[in-house]
Amino acid sequence: MREDFLHFLWRWRRFDARNLATSDGQALEILHPGEPNPHAGPDFFNARIRLDGTLWAGNVEIHLNASDWLAHRHDADPAYDNVVLHVVLDEDQRLRRPGGELLPCLTLRERIPPQLLEKYFRLEHERAWVPCEKTFGTVPEIVRLNWLDRLLVERLEQKTESVAKVVEATGHNWEEAFYRVLARNFGLKVNMEPFEALARSLPLRLLAKHKDQLFQLEALLFGQAGLLADKFEDEYPRALAKEYGFLQHKYGLQPLSAGQWKFFRLRPAGFPTLRLAQFAAVVYRSAHLFSQVLETGSTSETEQLFSAGISEYWRTHFRFDKTAVRQPKPPGREFVHLLLINTVAPFLFHYGRAKGQPELQDRALRLLESLPPEANTVVDGWAKRGQRAANASQTQALLHLKTHYCDEKRCLECAIGNAILR
Ligand code: SF4
Known about the structure:
- By secondary structure, the chain is of the alpha/beta class.
- The protein has 2 domains: 3-112, no CATH class; 151-370, no CATH class.
- It contains 17 helices and 8 strands.
- The chain has helices at 3-11, 68-71, 114-125, 141-169, 174-186, 192-201, 204-208, 214-224, 235-251, 272-285, 289-295, 299-305, 333-354, 358-370, 377-384, 392-406, 415-420; strands spanning 28-32, 35-36, 44-51, 54-65, 83-90, 105-107, 317-319, 322-323.
- A hairpin with a 2-residue loop joins strand 7 (317-319) and strand 8.
- Helix 4 packs across helix 5 (174-186) and helix 4 (141-169) packs across helix 16.
- The protein is elongated, with a radius of gyration of 29 Å.
- The protein binds iron/sulfur cluster.
- Iron/sulfur cluster binds next to helix 16 and helix 17.
């Protein structure tokens, strides 16, 4: 058993509370279990209890064994002086305060309902993809949907933290920060790092000087990516290399290494060369993308900003010097939707909070609701277990639930887990 199960029992009073008494025989009444403390110090603050009719207000500490109090050196820590009750599974040792009086202790072992214990152990030891998958369907839909709504906000908050770091790193230049995060997400999982490094090495203000020339934008992006160093047969990459040589000298640029880009196991449509061409086309469409995002209203308008057409050469090539058997296309809708989910929504959410504009945070949520569900193995896994997603806000919440709750066995903090353990 883990200690957090005792926290759960205490917080929601899910134990047999008839004839409660401390181990030294004082009648115990719990008026309020206190507020959970996620930081250092006692586990619950501001609890209120009655011991033999006397009201006590203070903190509660919880352990599997009473002796853990000494093992954790709470006896020498003034932060624990105001503990009014020690709640334990087993009292393997009687504890006294520094003044010599007994520390009131409640033992829970005989008070845990057997059915609840059985359900807890089943969740704890289940090795299934989702540990609760056998009982998941018994949880009312309203509980699941409300929980997904909360998880979506939690996920956006988490993404917002990484957006905030980039905004901070750019000296609160929102356009530059948006450009960097967009570049990172253009790389998807496989080429995320080199795309991000590329954007850092090639600031947006520099690209903006060439925003009217798609050819120069491509020269800068491909050259800086280190992908123009070969001896090419085609005229187009040779011209790009020549242009980059000129711009490199002018701006004192140091290209990345070509070896950072991964082509292996990617379908041609996902090759970084084609993604770079698509990225160049998006910058060509607007060097002030974030301002444009703020100005657009509907999802389809926002989508349009990222669906720019690629240049002539890339309509017949996936890589330099290799003519494509099938014709490459501008970014597909599914890819654009991923950009909206992973870049636009977190930026709107963060910007709305930073600027005190809650309507932008609502817009981020509505944007996700208006997008179709994502297709990936996690979303498929949930669908096979009966939890189908209606839109991207639910797929985002389900991804968060699987990765940050189910995989980490945080069932006691999960509304679904709580409903199962009822
Ligand atoms: S975290 Fe929630 S949904 Fe996931 S296995 Fe536990 S109870 Fe089920």
